[in-house]
Amino acid sequence: MNTDTDRDRGILTPADRAFLLGERELGHEQSRRNAEARIRRRVIDSILDFDLLLHTLPEKDRRQVFEEVATDPDALDGLRAALAFTYIGTSEQGLDFEDVLVPAVRHSEEACAASRRGANVSVEVTFEVETSVETTLEGVAERLADGDPVSPQELFALIMQGEHDPATHERIALVTSDGADDQFLERLATYLEGELRRPTSSRAVIRLENE
Known about the structure:
By secondary structure, this protein is mostly helical. Helices cover 56% and strands 8% of the residues. The chain has helices at residues 14-20, 29-56, 59-71, 73-92, 97-117, 137-145, 152-161, 182-191; strands spanning 171-175, 195-200, 203-207. The longest helix has 28 residues, at 29-56. It is globular and about 60 Å long.
């Protein structure tokens, strides 16, 4: 999660980011509701803008945007988050994400083939998700309370759920694979306002200010 509130305005203003991160208090309940409504409206308007961008933004500008995404890990994480936001949002409304993804990919492939190769193509897109429950978040919270290690993915899921606050612990032990993404671990530590330490390649500890 990118917690830099001082970036230039995008969908969110710096004040919006501070509000969502709990760094900006609004004095009245109505002010909070107004801020939430403005953010919702801005997100909806931004989604509508993508239709305009797709059809009117010059190719050279699109290429420059994604050149930055390809070289900036934070931008790449943001792109993944945009897809995750869409996936979760459509699922919550009973919409099939496949009905969003498949036509988008198919039409893009058809348009690219026509403009770049002067050809008509037949496109088959397969999207499949299989989910199996490995651990419950209640169990993850209990392991944290007992001081037992959890995986970075379990910690992230607990943060996203919002019912348990990992930041109340003095330390969080993490068990990681040898190929664990150090930047992901750093972002978790930063979000929790803690300090990341790596005793071994398969262990990490986030020390928090409660100590």
